[in-house]
Amino acid sequence: MADGKPRSLSPGPGGRLGTLLDDAVWGLRAYGFIVAMWVRSTMAYRASFLIMLAANFATAGLDFAAIMIMFAQVDALGGFTLPEVAFLYGTSCVAFGLSDLLLGTAERVGRRVRDGTMDVLLTRPVPVLSQLAADRFALRRLGRVIQGSLVLGWSLTRLEVDWTPGRVALLASMVLCGAAIFGCLFVVGGAFQFWAQDASEVQNAFTYGGTTLLQYPPTVFGKDLVRGVTFVVPLAFVNWLPALRLLGRDDPLGLPDWLDLAAPAVALLCCAVTGLVWRAGLRAYRSTGS
Amino acid sequence: MDDADGAFIDVRDLTKTFTVRRRSGLLRRTATRVHAVDGISFVLRRGEMTGFIGPNGAGKSTTVKMLTGILTPTSGRLRVAGVDPWRERTRLVRRIGVVFGQRTTLWWDLPLRDSYGLVRRMYRIPRARFEENLARCVELLELGDLLDVPVRQLSLGQRMRGDITAALLHDPDVLYLDEPTIGLDIVSKARVRQFLLTLNAERGTTVLLTTHDLSDIEQLCERVVVIDHGRLMYDGPLAGLHEVGRGERTLVVDLERELPPIEGIPGARTVRTEGPRQWLAFPASASAAPLVSRLAAEYPLVDLSIREPDIEDVIARMYAG
C-alpha cells in the first residue's frame, strides 16, 4: 500500500505536464477509494440493493418494450429490422449506462453550490470532480448496463455480420467512446451550473434525450435534426455512424466513410474540451462565490 | 514556512469585490459592485487563538473563504503558512482544518468511522498517526459510542464534535471554525470549548474562529478581530473591545404588578417597560449582584434574568461612538 507515504509537496521533475499527470492519477485513485466506500456501504443492505437494481433494470427495459410493441405491428422501422434496432438500442444503452454509473452525479453542481457544500469539496486535497462524481456512487445504475447488454447480446446472435477482428474492435470502441462522450456531457452540464445553477434540466435534455434518440434508427428522424445532432452534439459518433458501418448501411447524410472511424478522436477531443470547460467553471465559481 | 517576522497568517490590504447583476427591467440588467471585503490587514502568529467577529454580511465568511483557498481575492496579499491559498489550494488544504458550523464536512449517509476512513485516504495520513489522532479526539470529545452511527442520525452537538475530529485527523497547523457552537446545548458548548483550549495548548494549533457568541470569545480567545462592512474595525484584546464598544448588559425584571419605571438604582437606567416587565441597562463591566439586591429590597420582584450584550450591539456602539 502506498498509503503510508505522504506525497511530496513539490512538483515532480516532470514539470507542468508531470504535475498534471500526477494530479490526474491522484484524482482517479481518489475517485476509486470514494466509490469503494460507497459500494461497501451499499452492500451493507444487500436486499435493498438487489431490489433497487431490479427496479433500475425494469425501468430501463420499458424503453425496449416500447420498441417491441412497435415491431409487433410493422416488420421494419425506417428500413431497419428488429435485430438492427436492438443493436442500436443495446450499444447506446450500454454506453449511456456506463457513463451514468461512473459520472452521473457530476451534474449535482447547482445543488452543491446552493447548499454551500461545494465549499466543503474545495477544502479537501482531492480534485473536486473526483469527489463530485464519486459521491453517493449508485451501483444500482448497473441495472441499465445489464439490460442494455442483454439486448445487445441478443441482437448479435441475430445479425448477419461477419465478425472480423476489426469489426469487433469497432464495436468495443463504439461503446467505450460513446460512454466517454456521454460522460463529457454530464461533466459539461455540471460545469455550466457554476454559471447558471438551474441548468441541469437543459443538460438532461441532451443526456437522457440523447440516449432516447440514439435508440432509434436515424432515418426515422428529420434530416436537419440528424445533422444537428451530428455536429452540435457529437452524439452520432457514439452510435449511428459506426453502427451503420457495422450493419453495412449507407448513412442518410452521405458523409465520407472515414468519419465512421473517427469516434476515438472525437471522444478524446470531447474529453479535452470538457476538461477546459470544467476548469473554467470552477475558476468562475472561485472568483464569484455562491 | 513562517515569514521572517513570525507571521503565520498574513493578510495585507485584502479585498474582494463581487459583481451582482440584478434584473432592472424586462430585459435590462444592472450590475452593482459590492465590496464584500474592503482592504483588510491583520497578522496571526503561530499558536494564536483569535476570534473573528462582525455582524451578518460583514465579510467574515468571504475572508475565511479566501484564507482557505475557496475564493480568489480581488486584490491584496495573502499568505497562510507561507502558501498563497488561492494558487496552491491542494497544497494548502493539507495543512489546514476547516469546520463549518452550519453544514457538515462529513458524509451524510456514512457512519462516522467510514467518514474518517475516507478522510485518512484523502489526506494520505499514515495509519499509525491516524489511529493515534482519532483515539485522542474520540476520548476528549466523547465520540466512542457514536462511531458507527450514520451522520444524519447525530444530534447537532454530536455532529459538531464529529466534524471537529474530521478536521484534525491530519494534524493541521491552522484550524478555521465557522460558528462552532451555534445551536449547541450548554454541555456540548463546554465540551467543544474545553477541547479547543486543550488542542491549542498541547499542539500549538493556530485557531481562527468566527462566532456570534461573545462567551465563546471570552473563554477561548486572547485576541479579537472585528470587521464590519468589509473593513477592519478593531484588532486587539477582548477587554478593549468592551471598552471601545461600551457594552451594556440588560436586566429583565418581572414585577408583581405594573409600576412606573424603576428609578433611583445607581448605575442602571430603565430603557423599556411593558406591563409588569421592565428592562434596565447597566455597564457590562459592573457586577449585577448589588443591583439585584437593591431591586429586591425596594420592589416586589417576581423574576429576573440578565442578557449579555451581543456582538451586534457592541459593534453598533463602536460605530456610533
UniProtKB/TrEMBL annotation, chain B:
One of its GO terms (molecular function) is ATP binding. The keyword Aminoacyl-tRNA synthetase does not apply. InterPro entries: AAA+_ATPase, ABC_transporter-like_ATP-bd, ABC_transporter_ATP-binding, P-loop_NTPase. It holds the Pfam family ABC_tran. It is found in: Cell membrane. It is a peripheral membrane protein. This is ATP-binding cassette domain-containing protein. It comes from Streptomyces spirodelae.
